[in-house]
Every structure is written in C-alpha cells, then in structure tokens.
C-alpha cells in the first residue's frame, strides 16, 4: 500500500479516537449521557448519525455488489428502503421522542416497552433484550466482514501476527470501534457518525462521477451502451422480476420501524428538532442511495471495458475502483469512507446491545440500586462482550455482507416493527399483545431462514423473511390484544 494511503487512513483513525475522548469529557457521567447523549443531539448530528448507522458497509459493499452482479433490478431494495425511511421519520420519530420521555424517561427501547406495558414489564425487557443482543451480534458481524474484505482486498499480503489478512481486518476494525465506543458512549458514536456520514456521502458522489467522466469513462451514454451490449436486460427494472421478488425487495423498507440502533436516534434529538432532522436525513439518504447505484452500474461498465481487471467478489467493486482510478492519498480517503460506513453501524449496534445488557439485565436482575458510574462501566464491559461474539461470527471469510445484513434486518423489522408502530399509535394495545408480537416476529423470521424458504418457497423463488415475520407479528399483537383487553387497563402517558 502507498505511504500516502496509509497516512490518510491513520488520520481517519486518529480523528475517530479524538472524538471519543472529547465525548468522554462531555457525556459519560450518568446513564442518560452515556446512552442517549443527554437527549440533546443537534438535528443534523441526529440525522446523519441515523443515516450512517443505518446504511453501514452494505451501502458501499452489498448494494453496489448486487447491482454489479445482477443489474438495475436490484435498485428496488434501495427504493423500498427510502419509502420506509420516509414513513419512519413521519410516523415513528416524533411519537417515540415524546413518548419515551412521557413513559418514565425511558433510555432504551426495552425500557420504553416495559413502562408502556407495566403488567408485562419483565417479560418485555428480557425478551426484547435477548433479541437485540442476538441479532446485533449477527449485524455487527456483517460490518466486521466488511472490514475483513477491505484488508484482504487492499491492505496487505501474508500473515499479520499470525492472522490472515481477512482476520487482521476484522480485528483492527473491532478494536478501533471498541476504543471510541467504550470511552465516549452515545455522544462519541453520534459525533463520529456525523463525520462518517459526511465522508460517506462525499465518496458516493465523487466515485461515480470519476468512473463516468474521468479518463476513458465516456459518460452515461457509454456506460449504457456497454451494459446493454453485455446484457440487453441489465438496465431493466423488471427483467426476471417476479411478484414475489418485487415484494421481497421493497419489503426491506418494513425493517426501518424496528431497528433499535436507528430509532434510538429519535429519542436523543433535542426537543423540537425532529422536523429538521427528518429533512436532513432523507436528503442525505437520497444522495447516498443514488451514489451507491451509480457505483454498481458504472463499476460494472468500467470492468467490462477493461478486461485486464479481475473482480472475484462483486461486493468489493468499490475497493477495486478506489485502488485503480485515484491518487493513493484520495484512495486513502475513499477507503476511510468505507471504514466509516462499517464503523458507524457497528458502534451504534454495540452501544444499543450494551445498553440492553446493562439496563435490562444487570440493573433488572443483579443490582437494582447500581450507581450511575457503575452502570456506565457495566455498559462498557457489555460493549466488549458483544464485540467478541461478533468477531467469532465474522471469522468465516465466506460470509456475505448482504446476506448477514438481510437476516438481522428482517429479525429486527419483524420483531420490533409492528410492536413499535402499534405501541405508539394504538392506545388499546395490551402487554400480552406486545409480548406475543415480539416473540412471533422473531420466531417466524428464524424459522423461515432455518427452513430455507427465503431461498426457495413452494417450488418458486424465495420470500424475504421479513414479510411473513412482519405480518405474523402484526396479527399476533392485534388478536392477542383483542382477547386480553378486558384484563389490561388502558394506560395514558
């Protein structure tokens, strides 16, 4: 690797650690500061933090790779996500910001659910915390896989202290994220997310433009001609797309309502800041998604026109273009953007997981009267424990970023999505209905994956597991709430 590339990456790592130290000085004295930044995030910070922690390495690896391999038909995933994000900001964000304060100033999603349904408080806190920790271990592993792929494709050859290049990338990514997350808590995660979101969107704008209009690019016309000559249907929105395939793609948008690491940002925005955060967040997301689509399509055309280039893994097209087309220092910046996408999501997931372990296990069962300082330290230990589990899961170099993200996204979306929406909007919902929806959504998703029905269903194409999980959870909440309504008084905030 070029020295200037290493310098650029080192500067990025130093900046992330410096932000962690700054946040340590500002907001780690109590649980509200460590877990929610004191509920005083600037709208721009909250918006880009939600976006950066949402998109992860999937935005620069998984989505461009899917478009590179299959074509424009994969863009429906991005469209479904954007529509889901719009609804999430309009329906969930303002209500969750207000109701988590009204219901006992809840600091975590499990705590909010417990306060909202006190007759099932323990069950809701325990079950939701288990789901959060399990699925976030998988989700965090997807980010670490991205770090491993980056090292394997770019950084080094041979062993590093006994580790393969892939595992060296996994370990380094985990250690840097652990450093600033454990030290600075939620404020560190949010501020680093803001910086990382800026870096990501700049890279997503610059790279497609350079590929299209740089030396030998030829513009959109040349790209279109190259892709159509390779495959006439490559730029078709519907080629080979069945009704089930279409629904499975756009159903990614259903996942937004149940992603704890995203919706916790709504809880942390300063009072009255949701509208501004929504506008900033959705604008950032639109630009980022268009850039990711451009990288996948323009990257495929570029590789087709340059047969000397080889790409074994489509999910590394961003890395290939960064190494091929740019000055080494700019390459360092672009690789930092990829690391930013990876780290922003991992840090958010680790913090939410640790908050559940600390608040919903340790304080609930082990030491109810624990001091604020003790809870902050327990949260830090919990971050490390979840990170170790994620490293173990990510140790398989054959793991696919998009596949891991898809499974975890569906698990959260089905388990928490209907539960969050209905708990915020339906006053007649009961605690028993909440538990039923939580368990049903998680179990249906895991069973669907175990049976392989997300790959093939009834002799046809697979159905994305979030669809049956989301529908089953919604029905379970509605039916059980109807059946138990007389036994559970309706509570007002």
Quick structural summary:
This is Sodium/proline symporter. This protein has 493 residues and is mainly α. Helices cover 75% and strands 1% of the residues.
Layout of strands and helices, then pairs:
Layout: H1 3-27, H2 31-36, H3 43-55, H4 62-70, H5 75-102, H6 109-116, H7 121-155, H8 165-213, H9 219-230, H10 243-250, H11 260-268, H12 274-305, H13 317-325, H14 328-366, H15 372-394, H16 401-425, H17 431-450, E1 456-457, E2 460-461, H18 466-484
Antiparallel strand pairs: 1-2
Helix pairs in contact: 1-8, 1-14, 3-8, 3-11, 3-12, 3-14, 4-12, 5-10, 5-11, 5-12, 5-16, 6-7, 7-8, 7-14, 7-15, 7-16, 7-17, 8-12, 8-14, 8-15, 9-12, 11-14, 13-14, 14-15, 16-17, 16-18, 17-18
Describe the structure.
The protein is 75% helix and 1% strand. With 493 residues, it is mainly α. It has a single domain, classed as Sodium/glucose cotransporter, CATH 1.20.1730. The chain has a two-stranded antiparallel sheet. The longest helix is centred in the middle third of the chain and has 49 residues, at 165-213. Catalyzes the sodium-dependent uptake of extracellular L-proline. InterPro entries: Na/Glc_symporter_sf, Na/Pro_symporter, Na/solute_symporter, Na/solute_symporter_CS, Sodium:Solute_Symporter. It catalyses: L-proline(in) + Na(+)(in) = L-proline(out) + Na(+)(out).
């Amino acid at each position: 690797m070029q020295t200037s590339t290493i310098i650029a990456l080192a500067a990025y790592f130093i900046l992330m650690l410096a932000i962690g130290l700054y946040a340590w000085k500002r907001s780690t004295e109590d649980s509200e500061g460590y877990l929610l930044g004191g509920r005083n995030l600037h709208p721009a910070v909250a918006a880009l933090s939600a976006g950066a922690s949402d998109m992860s390495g999937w935005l620069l690896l998984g989505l461009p790779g899917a478009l590179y391999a299959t074509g424009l038909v994969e863009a429906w995933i991005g469209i479904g996500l954007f529509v889901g994000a719009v609804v999430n900001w309009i329906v969930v964000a303002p209500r969750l910001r207000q109701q988590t304060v009204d219901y006992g100033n809840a600091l975590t999603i499990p705590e909010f659910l417990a306060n909202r349904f006190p007759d099932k408080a323990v069950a809701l806190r325990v079950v939701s915390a288990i789901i959060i920790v399990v699925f976030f271990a998988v989700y965090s592993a997807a980010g670490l896989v991205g770090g491993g792929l980056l090292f394997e494709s770019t950084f080094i050859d041979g062993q590093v202290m006994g580790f393969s290049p892939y595992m060296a990338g996994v370990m380094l990514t985990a250690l840097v994220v652990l450093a600033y997350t454990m030290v600075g808590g939620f404020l560190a995660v949010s501020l680093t997310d803001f910086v990382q979101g800026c870096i990501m969107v700049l890279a997503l704008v610059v790279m497609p433009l350079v590929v299209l209009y740089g030396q030998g690019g030829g513009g959109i016309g040349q790209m279109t001609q190259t892709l159509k000559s390779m495959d006439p249907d490559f730029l078709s929105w519907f080629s080979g797309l069945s009704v089930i395939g279409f629904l499975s793609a756009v159903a990614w948008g259903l996942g937004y309502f149940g992603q704890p690491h995203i919706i916790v940002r709504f809880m942390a925005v300063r009072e009255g800041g949701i509208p501004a955060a929504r506008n900033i967040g959705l604008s950032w997301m639109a630009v980022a998604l268009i850039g990711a689509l451009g990288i996948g399509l323009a990257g495929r055309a570029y590789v087709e026109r340059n047969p000397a280039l080889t790409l074994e893994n489509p999910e590394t097209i961003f890395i290939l273009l960064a190494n091929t087309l740019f000055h080494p220092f700019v390459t360092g910046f672009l690789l930092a953007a990829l690391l930013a996408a990876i780290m922003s999501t991992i840090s958010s997931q680790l913090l939410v997981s640790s908050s559940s372990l600390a608040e919903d296990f340790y304080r609930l069962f082990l030491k109810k009267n624990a001091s604020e300082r003790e809870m902050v330290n327990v949260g830090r230990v919990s971050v490390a424990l979840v990170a170790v589990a994620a490293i173990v899961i990510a140790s398989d170099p054959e793991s696919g970023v998009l596949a891991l993200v898809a499974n975890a996204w569906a698990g959260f979306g089905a388990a928490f999505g209907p539960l969050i929406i209905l708990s915020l909007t339906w006053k007649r919902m009961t605690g028993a209905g909440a538990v039923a929806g939580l368990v049903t959504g998680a179990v249906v998703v895991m069973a669907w994956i175990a049976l392989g029905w997300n790959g093939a269903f009834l002799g046809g194409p697979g159905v994305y597991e979030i669809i049956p999980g989301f529908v089953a959870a919604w029905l379970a909440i509605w039916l059980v709430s109807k059946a138990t309504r007389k036994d559970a008084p309706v509570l007002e905030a």
